[in-house]
Specification:
By secondary structure, the chain is an all-alpha fold. The protein is globular and about 55 Å long.
């Protein structure tokens, strides 16, 4: 019983230390790290949208067209594999969105490094990341609207989840980071 109490006390102390470390981080860097975390989790939201679009035309199978995102337990799409794609996933806007998302993930590496270097000028790299996030937001919201127009309200509850976890959360985090940038100058 004493070991169990020691474990609980150790967990409480550990959580308190994590809270102190998180509170000691500058608010600008906190918002930037939240945006980075959301951008990595956006991959899973994009796959939720792809599965929803494919399910709406009764086509199952893998939808993973990204090839270097970690913790992916879904097989990738082979280039020559015949599969019927939903018309929203065949538009030029969606293809631009996927290419931009791949390059956006690569852009996050210098953004991470700029956050780690003390007294580093983040204006240029932050502007690139914010602009890229805004274009991702517009393209993803447009694809969601297109799917809603094509299929009506058949999958609206699942689409609302994708909308809230994807573009809405992304827009809030971008606006918070942009507000911090403007207030700090």
């Amino acid at each position: 019983m004493a070991d169990f109490h020691e474990l609980i006390v150790t967990c409480i102390i550990f959580l308190y230390q994590i809270t102190l470390i998180f509170r000691s981080i500058h608010p600008f860097k906190k918002d930037a790290m939240l945006l980075i975390l959301h951008n990595f989790l956006l991959y899973y939201v994009i796959n939720m949208f792809k599965h929803l679009a494919q399910a709406s035309i009764n086509s199952d199978g893998a939808v993973n067209s990204f090839y270097y995102v970690p913790l992916v337990y879904e097989e990738g799409i082979a280039a020559g594999r015949p599969q019927s794609w939903h018309e929203v996933l065949r538009t030029s806007t969606w293809h631009f969105f996927e290419v931009l998302f791949r390059h956006h993930l690569a852009l996050l590496l210098p953004f991470n490094l700029a956050l780690l270097v003390p007294r580093c000028k983040l204006a240029f790299i932050s502007t690139l990341v914010l602009l890229s996030n805004f274009v991702l937001f517009v393209c993803f919201a447009l694809a969601i609207c297109q799917l809603l127009l094509v299929h009506g309200h058949a999958h609206s509850l699942r689409l609302l989840t994708v909308l809230c976890l994807g573009p809405v959360c992304q827009g809030v985090l971008v606006c918070r980071l942009l507000g911090r940038m403007w207030l700090s100058q």
